[in-house]
Amino acid sequence: MLDKATSRRFYVLALNKPNLIMKKTLLALCLVLSASLHAADEKKSVTYEGQITGVVCASCKAHITGALTQKLPGVISVDVKAGDNAEQQKLVIVTSSDAVTKESATEALGTFAKNYQILSLAKKP
Q1: Cβ atoms of 68 and 109 closer than 8 Å
Q2: CA 80, 92, 106 angle in degrees (round to 5)?
Q3: What is the DSSP string of 9-51?
């Protein structure tokens, strides 16, 4: 027969075991879900790089960023960086869409297209 202390220990272990199993199962599910979401995010982003002219200040950059973010499909981010020379800047668009072209980006600029000219835009490998 089991003494009182051993019996109590067995009872406590029996009660804690389902909680431990549930915690491990929940942790495993969370890890699988997190990994699948991370993998899905990596597959969706497409980066386009090109050249643009007319960007001379932070306000110009804000106009371009706002117009492209609102009007192009699936835009994640837009960045305008200094280019090789003072007249041309580097345009970087990260999107979840494969359908971005120089023409669609120029159209997305709308009335700003008279001030800023996108010279080139290509999908980065």
Answers
A1: yes
A2: 85
A3: HHHHHHHHHHHHHHHHHHHHHHHHHHHHHHHHHHHH-EEEEEE
